[in-house]
Protein 1
Amino acid sequence: MPRRVEGRSMTGRYYEEFEVGETIEHARRRTVSEADNQRFCDMTMNQQPLHLDADFAGETQFGERLVNGLYTLSLAVGVSIPETTDGTIVANLSYDNVEHPNPVFHGDTIRARSTVTDKRETSDGERGVVTMHVEAFKLVEDGDDVLVCEFDRTALSEKRPDGDE
């Protein structure tokens, strides 16, 4: 349920609202376009021909251009924000154990889920550190969705303000 804070709606969770072991299926999905991949490569100055050159990529084991793996990771974080840290985050502290077990191609639709794996208060007790294992999948019509990226995301989270229930 969205809350209003300083005139804006937020949907993220405070530290106290995360439960270790819970899995959050994220509602947002995104179909990755050629333009998404091109823009991301341009913005990050990554001119790897496997991402951008159809002739080059066509001669590889994949047979076509791959979506930049860092875009896939960023997309997984982005689609997870509404149900996790929208309006309640202080900072992302780390992204660890990143793996890309399967490729993403133009036209693939990506969904994500996060599982809370750890949480602890900061040493001063004023905030909390939450670690989530994030998995991104490409949707498959006939069968199980395919895991395309997974990683651990650690965020510094605000605690619920005094008197806010």
Note: Residues 69-84 form the longest helix (16 residues).
Protein 2
Amino acid sequence: MTATSGAAQPERPGMKDGVCGEFTVFTKIKPGHAEAMREDLATLAGGSADVKARGALRQIGTLHDARHVLFDNDTRHMFASVFDGSWDTYIDDFGKTAIGGRFDKVFSHTEGFPGISDPAVKDWFVAQQEPAGVFVSSYPDLTVQQIWKDQRVNEAFQAVLDTPEFRAALENPANAELVSTPAFQKLLEEASA
């Protein structure tokens, strides 16, 4: 899935910092539904459901983090997340994966939720959304996809560093010019940090 779309998107609430956007909704929990909501949230967080959720998150590929909070004596619920790209694409992507079913299950305990596949769901989210007063990302120019790639490259590089062949190449006089360059030294410093 992608974080961009060629069609013009309506203005949506929420702040941006670089490629990252924030999404926070506050909802009212239906009377008597708090315990069921807690149980559904616990199901989201563990076991084989977690493996399925991680697969869906990989499929979406734009979600940095998300959290659910019940508060005000279990009468209200907050969902907050950080994502890449457009708000509309973010909501659309959730509806197309296993996460959509999970959203339906959790948000079914809140007042007025029409369902993730209902055309009115975006209007419902907008009505529940409160933009952050301040939103700052530690890595505003890195998408989830870039972070995952950086992690894969780092793991591969670390594996190379651990080989006897790499150590031999560092000690080989034929490579002394490359090894002594500031860029190569910086690479080695960063790898050992």
Note: The chain has a mean pLDDT of 88.
